[in-house]
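Bumping with the actual sequence this time:
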Amino acid sequence: MDYFWVVPAVLFVVVIIPLIGYFYGRQGRWTGAAGWFLLLGGQVVLQAGGGEWFAWGGLLWLAVTVFGFVLVIMDMFANRGRYS
């Protein structure tokens, strides 16, 4: 069994999640934080071979990634006048 997915998964859990939670959470921008979690988490799973886990796996993780991207875009538009 290949364990090449362990390094990106550990980096995601140990580094990325706390950083996103800190930077977005202190501003109260939880839509953006959830979007980044889904966007990056979906990509980590896809790159780790999650698309081959079951028949519709690739489409599922691609949909999770796209939904995360939509949440990030919604957060950007919702807060565009807040910081300018």
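The tokens above came from a reply further down the thread. Residues 28-78 form one domain.
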